[in-house]
């Protein structure tokens, strides 16, 4: 006895691609794709339909998914999201057919099940009970040629007292009348289903939509009509499961505010924002109509124990929280009066215009130590601490030991730690044992992390209850002197540095100084370090930003001795081989890979002083041509030698200018030789700008131009796509957080398709458009799976940009705002309002605004010089991250005019906003909550870039 199960799915493939099904049962390959069920394609109208069938025994069950493979069954693509379930209907008899009509599941289909939506935005106080599980039917096949249709739809959010119906042309589907339509039952996991018997005369069947019907009214699906045709001439009966994916509603759109944790100012803080200040920020977000608060990284960065550590992307530990954000008053209920007085005095002393990183951190740790001395026994023995320690000891113990060794040896440079330079578990256990003399010091670091955890958890839970998504930040790198590189040195390539090639931010590229990842080693335990890292983040955040998501496709790798980011190569990448160059007639590899320094170039760079510079740094290896001396043939060596040179030299030129010119000489190469494989080469970025290239013969130039274009824009695409599909799904599956990728810079063509496939939300900054040929992005044309913003922490604020670039400001005023007159010198609140409105009306899932750009809506907050609002200067590797909002959160909460202005912007755009009565237990978006369905919003139209209402505002302003 057996039943026949057939599969059917519409999917367009490219030449050489195939679809197959792989599942948990041996008939579907036991999750071995090589043994899966290969499907056959056929054209039906404009669709390419893949289908196949198997014979199964009674009671058969299996999970399964669809895969795209090549001719040898290597996986090219797979479905994202939950595994499908195959259960035979209870009424299916021997010889009868079960047809599964599926739709491909993309990453965007999984968005509503991310914690940002499931646990925050669409959170409800009521739950649904399963009315009819999958596989249970209410009907039986009663005649030959009849069919039972099971309609199945996924609806992640439903208001209490609301039902789902399917409507169609058949009498059994109500003939378009809701009251007569087919009501669906809840089957669990956000799936709704209903079945009915259809006869031959019911086909072809049109059922354009599902709809919600309840107290809040009727909500009908949008999108194209659905139609089902079957061959009724066969005469046999069948059971057809119509899996129609997500209910097609208008995509949910929300707004948020972005501000670094250290920048928040409150009446209670000690010179820097603290985790408990997030509760005030959340309150302000709700008042302003925002569903999201975005932070920069909050991990401990205390590597150097000085202001350099203000750089939040250089993690000392990817697990530990930064003690800077601790509220010392909240760590105990029994603080003596003398310590309370010390806190009050410190609050006054540290209440400065900018963050004093060193003073704030030192003060907090000093006060915390005094409180710890009084209550250590009680806290360390408490049940809550013991639970925290048990859950986090894998990273907490090495972190505390590292902090002790850093302070004891007064450096994080492990080579100075003697026998502790190399990590081992045996050494660690001795170091942190209760018998050691410094056990109390180690426990202090446990104690600080425990209270940071409690305070951030309190703030995170507060945000959830208020319907506000807390969005964290996942840095792409870790400091080379970090806990992670100490404990897991095999996971990092310590002789390299990460960065970014030349782009909008820096014409010389960026060198972040982090070691690159050893992905091959990381893959051996299925990227356990990454999975643990994301799991830890998920304790506090419901969304996160992946810093430099391009690094998961390929990273810009530099030698450890480099200081700038220009002479690097992509890792992984397919290099240019020596054989490839020789076949093109290029053979003088020393000429192409060594700095090309002629007398004329030296005279051009240094003028009359060229001989002094040449004698100090160069050797003349043949008449008129020079090479760097051994002691200064790298950027780090040059920087070191230059200091001693200037101490005795009479040159008046600044050290910075001389260093830049010497670096230009060193970087004047056409090709970069691979340090590990000397027969492999990489074209230097912007090769045509070098005199090394310009002085070559025309044939060599043409060959190198062609190879340059091929290396940067063609040959790597498949490799980079494959690399991203190995690593990114691990991140996405490690937590339920909503993932957003920072995809600015030089974007390979494979990036956006992969992000769309995996459900990764991209970033769009208007003045850094990713579309070729545009100077300014067009928000009304952004895709739904994006976050849009007028600026971000890595660039100047809207107000600062307006004032710093007169020519570009003029072009923006003409092309975007639509005025031919000269723009005002200052970025007025009217201009800010227009730009913010452009963004909030865009189709993007999120509009997230830096707090500085929001404050610029009101003239009272624009008296501060714009330069003081800068968070980061990407061109300065030693930038002091110290921007502090010049108004307290308490004052902003009292400013009803500003919050009304912002909320009106959000409301007028059709974006959803959190309700203020969340504690009543109602859903967070009672008025307009709609789950994302992956469909795009129609473009928002404007006349000459300006809406009529906004035009009136500008006419009055100018």
UniProtKB/TrEMBL annotation:
Segments for region (Disordered): 913-941
Keywords: Carbohydrate metabolism, Cytoplasm, Glycosyltransferase, Transferase
GO annotation (BP), single: carbohydrate metabolic process
Catalytic activity: Transfers a segment of a (1->4)-alpha-D-glucan to a new position in an acceptor, which may be glucose or a (1->4)-alpha-D-glucan
Subcellular localization: Cytoplasm
Superkingdom of this protein's organism: Eukaryota
EC top class, as a word: transferase
Predominant cellular place of this UniProt entry's protein: cytoplasm
EC code: 2.4.1.25
One Gene Ontology CC term in the entry: cytoplasm
Phosphoprotein as UniProt keyword: no
Molecular function terms from GO: 4-alpha-glucanotransferase activity; starch binding
UniProt-listed Pfam families: CBM_20, Glyco_hydro_77
InterPro entries: Carb-bd-like_fold, CBM20, CBM20_DPE2_1, CBM20_DPE2_2, GH, Glyco_hydro_77, Ig-like_fold
Sequence ranges assigned to domain CBM20 in this UniProt record: 1-106, 141-254
Alphabetized PANTHER family for the sequence: 4-ALPHA-GLUCANOTRANSFERASE, PTHR32518
Family: Belongs to the disproportionating enzyme family.
Name recorded for this polypeptide: 4-alpha-glucanotransferase
Organism name: Anisodus acutangulus
